[in-house]
Amino acid sequence: MADKLFNDTFDLPDINHMNKIVTLKDIAKALNLSISTISKALNDSYEISEDTKKKVLSYAKYHHYSPNRMAKGLKEGKSRSIGVVVCSLENNFVAQMLDGIDSYSSNKSYQIIIMQSKESAQQEIACLDLLYAGGVDGILISPASQTVDFSYLVTLQKAGLPVVLFDRLSDHIDTHKVGADNFRGAYDATVHLIDNGYKNIAHLNTNTILSIATERLNGYKQALYDRNITYRPELLRSCDYSNPKKLHQDLEAAIHYYMSLEVRPDAIFTATDQISTRCLALLNKMGYHVPGDVALIGFTNTDLADALNPALSTVNQPAFEMGQIAASKLISLIEAKIPVTEFETIMLETKVNVRASTQK
Q1: Domain that includes residue 141, residue range
Q2: Domain HTH lacI-type: where (predicted)?
Q3: Cα 269 off chain centre by
């Protein structure tokens, strides 16, 4: 029935697409076009009419045509592979970004090779070494929390390897960068707490110099200032999230510290995915009622926010879109005919999702 519907629409002969690997030659024969025309249509050439492109693309998609990446790469002098370095694969936010990267890359006939730094600058360099030695066409990287020296990345870039930063950005390398508006996200989260009557707002951040940590801290401070609330340095605590055990210890110590203050916080704003969900679990375990004893909001893209007890108010980042745009920027550098010297920094909007954890 599906075959008949397709052929009625385009009046084309069919290929037994379930039992055969479809080639350019097969498509050319089925559509009564030259192989050259089919190839140009699939590569969006200006020489081919839009009607022909539509017909070719529809037929190729329906019959699950997949271009031979290796053959195409050899012809172009490329591997048609992209190296992606992230902090950890355990993070839901990272998984969503990788999904966006893979979606865009696959559509452009690139495969991705994913490696994780585990927040180690040394391991990050080892990942980059392996990817470079493997002949990737470019690198997408969200730098490790320990990374303060970007000279190695700059060296790879000068050697001709395109590099794009995503999520965690830095001024130490000149290239395309794609991230979220962390300042605005933190500002909006803090204003939401203030508008709901909370005045003693603590902030749990990371013990790094990453741009995301600094921007979120500054957004929190600016919101307090704009609403005439005095910033209390004792309400700022940092956590080491280089490993889960240390993060748990730091969070437990921070909560004990907050609750021992003479004027203890009535709300906590947390800065990362890992801190947000673990903080809620610890507050529940330690017997504090959220939001009765203390409200909680944090940066996290977890799909379980609605299912937590209570449902967690969050600052949501457009992770999938971030990954797509980062991949598009890298592939544009890879396929550029002349060296690119002007770069963009793209900041995507965040959104506060209000749930029970901040409702008095």
Answers
A1: 73-179+319-346
A2: 22-76
A3: 22
Q: What is the pLDDT of residues 9-36, one digit of tens each?
A: 444 444 444 445 677 888 888 899 988 8
Helical spans, DSSP H, in 108-243: 121-133, 151-158, 182-195, 211-226
Task: Mark whether 37 and 52 lie in a shared domain.
Answer: yes
State pLDDT tens for residues 147-178: 989 999 999 999 899 999 999 999 999 999 99
Q: What is the DSSP string of 185-216?
A: HHHHHHHHHHHTT--SEEEEEESS--HHHHHH
Domain end call among 48, 66, 84:
66
Among candidates 27, 104, 110, 19, which has minimal Cα distance to 65?
A: 27
Alpha carbon 71 to chain centroid, angstroms: 30
Whether residues 239 and 323 share a domain: the answer is: no
Compute the residue count for the chain: 360
Shared domain for 144 and 205, answered yes or no, is no
The candidate with the shortest Cα–Cα distance to 84, out of 244, 324, 340, 291, is: 324
